Each structure stands twice: as C-alpha cells, then as structure tokens.
C-alpha cells in the first residue's frame, strides 16, 4: 500500500554551483540548463541546442518577444526522457486507445515549467467505458480533487498509465488486467484524464502511442 501511495503521488501530484566554470557548465548541461551569455537571443540559443525558438521560450514560460537576461539560467531540455531513450524502452506491445471511440483532446499535455499538465484530458462526446491501454496490474485506486476516482496501472518496461475522472471503477487493487479491459466509467460532464509515465517521468501520451506503434 505504501508503494502505491508513493507512486500515485509521483504520477499525479508532482508537477522534477560548483567552484570551477568547467564544472558548472558540466552540471548545467546534465541538468538541461544553460546560463545566458551576452548577445544571446532565443533564436541563437535555440540553434546551439538544435531547438525551435518558440519551444525553447515556452519551456521557460515566455515567448520569443520576451527578453533574455545575461547570467540567467534557462531550461534547454525537456523534463521527460528523450525520444532516443523512449525508443530503448518501448511499451510492451502496441498501446490501445483508452476509450472505445476516438475523442478530441480538450486539455493537451504540457511540459512547460509555468503551466505543467502531465497528461491529456479528452472531450466527452460519446458515452462509453475507459479501458486499459496495455496489459498490466492495478497498483492504485483512489480519489483526488480535480481527478475524481482514478486508477493507476503498472506495465512492463517501467511504464505506468493513469486513468482519471472516473465515476465508477470496475477493477480492484492488485488485479491483473488485459489490454482493452474495462476499468471504469467516466464522470458526468467530464472527459477522461489520461497520463503515461516512463518510471517517474511523464510522457506525452501522443508520443507514447507513436513509440508503441513504431
């Protein structure tokens, strides 16, 4: 039970100077940060890290029209695992859509530092059931304000999936489930909240589906 509680908090609730200059730069690179130098702009900095300037600015809660300041530290790396890292830890099989019918996304995944949203929330256009995207084990069932009832599944290769905004839950903690097995029904006037983690790192569910299909 303690493990389940810790996992649920990590998956849903969490929104992750050395003396020499050489050592400082090494630590910053490892942490995915960069200390702004004189003459830097969003565009020139983005080129250094092979990034889109708008993406770089959004990771830091700003736009490309906002100023950069000398000696400030900005984020130059996504908080989650890279595409290369994810490919090495592919989901165990092709993930299934967690709803019986495709729904559009009402609230997308966000990896920005100022407005984090670690999953996606689908619109609710059709009645139906929430189903497991992959075979797995139910490790936690609980209630949280803003998410209603939620279910967390553990899958192979360090993958976890979270299903929130549930009115009713049809499974039990410790239960092994098959792919496409019904987990519950969606709360009235809400869309499914769906989150995917590779261990402790939240992954864009759209990227998750693409990696699992490749």
TrEMBL record:
It comes from the Bacteria. Residues 32-76 form the LysM domain. The keyword Signal applies. Pfam families: LysM, Peptidase_M23. CDD domains: LysM, M23_peptidase. Coiled coil: none annotated. Residues 81-102 are annotated as: Disordered. InterPro entries: Cell_wall_metabolism_enzyme (IPR050570), Dup_hybrid_motif (IPR011055), LysM (IPR018392), LysM_dom_sf (IPR036779), M23ase_b-sheet_dom (IPR016047). GO terms for molecular function: metalloendopeptidase activity. Keywords: Signal. The keyword Signal applies. This is LysM domain-containing protein. It comes from Leptospira ryugenii.
